[in-house]
Amino acid sequence: MKCSVFIATSADGFIAKNDGSVDWLHTAGIPDVDLGDDADMGFKQFMASVDCMIMGRKCMEMIHSMQLTEEQWPYGDTRIIVLSNTLTQLPEFPGKVELYSGDIKVLLKNLENQGHTHAYVDGGTTIQGFINLELINQMTITRAPILLGEGISLFGKTKKDIKLAQCSAKRFANDFIQEVLSVNYD
Amino acid sequence: MKCSVFIATSADGFIAKNDGSVDWLHTAGIPDVDLGDDADMGFKQFMASVDCMIMGRKCMEMIHSMQLTEEQWPYGDTRIIVLSNTLTQLPEFPGKVELYSGDIKVLLKNLENQGHTHAYVDGGTTIQGFINLELINQMTITRAPILLGEGISLFGKTKKDIKLAQCSAKRFANDFIQEVLSVNYD
């Protein structure tokens, strides 16, 4: 099961402010520039490559707080699994969202047995957990040209140094830079 | 007085491990690839653009620990000012190194009065201090494709969000990515 990350960070590596807000993403760089074919910075193409999504509780709550309509829902009919060991039920979403608590490797094995091949993993804590289980294979990191100074980090402690390989790097007209990195746990 | 940063970080934003070591810089990416004209990743060209250097005590101590010969000294005859409020004298160096304690803005004013126009600012604590004094104008950040998990951060807390602008972005054959960013304190 391939597991990939697709996420935006500040130049100092934060995915959100401490209160979870990501407003700064919409003002960083040159927000009103015409991105042409890059308007979604590769998101639709990435979504088309995955067949399920795994996110943490906090990530789910942040998305829920946005109160997206069916038209605004960015994940189509992709099956979404929310990891939580505390929740017993989920709020309403316009998409296919289900709850999972338990072992991550068992979850991935189950998803594989159900025909899934590529998971989109989202949320800082969840991504860090997956990296420490050596489960993330690829990361698309889009860096916004802004320093936040503090917030929720994309990365955390690792058990060892983890080598990455640059698959591609692209600068967008809005001054964001997107790197696609593969992960090598050897 | 223009103040610039030229520094390498891990993909998770560290400039050194907690013990100050930067060995990982030499094994990250594809270390044995031929970089051709990019062998120094722009360092000589950057050095040619500055006329003085300001670094923190820890940065000086790290450089001193390398026991560089005159031939290995990477800063030519560029005047180097080491900031320290505790040291009273410096160890021997093959280059022009002097000690300064006191107000940074006074130092920059003095350097300007002595004809300097562009300072290379180095060392994590020093760079963070300069950013919070709104003194850094440009940053060249070369990201090594490796996660360290912990270490000495390039960036720290800021008093507010700081907008950056992407001047250029370049991917080297060794899988490092170099961004040149200008800093906007408005």
Describe this structure in words.
The structure is a homodimer of 186-residue chains. By secondary structure, chain A is α/β, with parallel strands linked by helices. Chain A contains four helices and eleven strands. Chain A has helices spanning 43-49, 57-65, 104-113, 124-132; strands at residues 2-10, 14-16, 52-56, 79-83, 97-100, 118-122, 138-144, 146-147, 152-153, 162-171, 177-184. In chain A, the strands form two sheets. Chain A has an eight-stranded mixed sheet, sandwiched between helices. In chain A, strands 2-9 form a two-stranded antiparallel sheet. In chain A, helix 2 (57-65) links the parallel strand 3 and strand 4. The radius of gyration of chain A is 16 Å and the shape is globular. Chain A starts with a strand and ends with a strand. The mean pLDDT of chain A is 95.
